[in-house]
Amino acid sequence: MRMIVWLLAVLLAVPVVASAQGPGRAACDVDVDITDRDPSGANVRATPGGSVVTALKNPTSEGWIVVHLAAQHDDWFEIDRAVLIDVDQDKERVIFQGRGFVHRSVVGVGGLQNGAVIYRDHATASATLDSHASGDQAVELLGCFGTFAKVRVKKGIGWTRQLCTNMVTTCS
User: Fold this and answer.
1) Is the distance from CB of 159 to CB of 148 less than 8 angstroms?
2) CA–CA gap between residue 100 and residue 48 (Å, rounded)
3) The dihedral sign for the CA sequence 128, 130, 132, 135
């Protein structure tokens, strides 16, 4: 009897574990830039729209901050790391490690790698939107899924793995 009760408990728990991804959540593995120009820094929150955990500030004149996106929750990105790229000192320093959330409005990219492929869906087997995109065009970050970033570029909305997070030069 105990075995049956234990088995039922395990089977009932499986849907809870499986739904941990949650509605509106997409796991991803993408690096992007903090593009927020607020001198007090871009807020990292404990939950989407929740209390502020820290602010990501760039104290350098020739540097920028790169964050690693671990998931997307609607207009919020879950991050697990932020790195300050300090060109003045020719070094990188982790300035945030842990779980936090930033709003889509404070992140983006400097452009694309020259010749980037932009797909119509988040799979390399999907049709291409642009098979050789210009690296220096305006790019709006819309989302992420797996290793792909959803972007809006001149030719429309698509998915790419070839973002440029170097704020000093174009990526070739």
Assistant:
1) yes
2) 8
3) negative
Percentage of the residues of the chain whose pLDDT score is greater than 90:
66
Beta bridge partners, 130, equal: 118
Burial 9-41 (b: 16+ CB within 10 A, else e): eeeeeeeeeeeeeeeebbebebebbbbbeeeeb
Please answer whether residues 142 and 9 qualify as being in contact, where contact means their C-beta atoms are separated by less than 8 angstroms: no
pLDDT the model gives residue 87: 80
* Residues comprising the chain, all counted: 172
Q: Are 56 and 67 in contact (CB under 8 A)?
A: yes
Amino acid letter at 20? A
| Interval 60-97: pLDDT, tens | 878 899 999 999 999 999 999 999 998 877 789 999 99
pTM of the model: 0.82
Residues 131 and 97 sit within 8 Å (Cβ to Cβ)? no
What pLDDT, on the 0 to 100 scale, is given for residue 18?
Answer: 33
